[in-house]
Predict the 3D structure of the following.
Amino acid sequence: MNDRLLPGVSPRPASSSRWLVGDAIRYTKRFESGRRGARLDERIVKSDKASCRWALREEVLRPRFSASDEVTRGAQATRAFLVESGFAEAEIRTTPVSLNDNWVMGSNRPANRFTARGGLVVETDKVDAIMKSVERTGELLKQGVVVENSFARYYWSPT
């Protein structure tokens, strides 16, 4: 028998190590057998509903309402962009504008005192139109609209 052992390994009887290995195998097989019985067929389906949120942001130093006015102007340009993309007015809703004073907390004073955020949400069954409009978000940037993000969600409902 070899007299040297690996550091940190204590000698154990063969029966206890066999028991540990056997227990680990039984534990693993218990989960594996549960998965085998629950196999489902998977298929790729096309979404039938979509929702997309265009978040707009504007930062200014002074006065505070100019940031809110800029977000409102951006929301109007975004609404026109979405109507041009083929969405009905009933599918588009505006989120409220929030105005934050960045100088309120702490002694750190960023260059832009006020940050205004707002946006629009489109909920529709025109999934392809949502995908195309998200891809065309760069056109809004060319118009001077600051788009923080355009987050799209796709849904499928079994009918």
Notes: Residues 31-39 have pLDDT under 50 and may be disordered. The domain at 54-103+112-155 is CATH 3.30.70 (Alpha-Beta Plaits).
